[in-house]
Design the sequence.
């Protein structure tokens, strides 16, 4: 009985880590691309363009860290809801971008 409970907890933690790594990678890439686009649009100097890319990457990592810390600090039932809401938001945003 205890081994199934242990495996259930391990798989829950693994699912949380997988979701957080996926979220972090996507937000890092999208925010960096947003920073690159805004850098090309607004700045002439290569230094300020790189700074806007770094700023966008920082925003992406920071927002992913905030969401992941909420997921890990919440109870298991609440974290499943937070992950589902996060994925549905990301999916709706990516679908709107494709249209």
Sequence:
């Amino acid at each position: 009985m205890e081994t199934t409970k242990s495996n259930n907890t391990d798989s829950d933690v693994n699912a949380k880590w997988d979701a957080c790594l996926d979220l972090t990678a996507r937000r890092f890439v999208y925010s960096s691309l947003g920073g690159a686009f805004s850098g090309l649009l607004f700045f002439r100097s290569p230094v300020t363009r790189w700074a806007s890319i770094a700023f966008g990457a920082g925003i992406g990592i920071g927002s992913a860290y905030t969401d992941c810390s909420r997921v890990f600090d919440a109870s298991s039932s609440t974290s499943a809801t937070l992950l589902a809401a996060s994925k549905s938001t990301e999916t709706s945003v990516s679908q709107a971008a494709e249209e």
Summary: Helices lie at 2-42, 46-73, 76-98. Residues 18-72 form one domain. The first helix runs from residue 2 to 42. The radius of gyration is 17 Å.
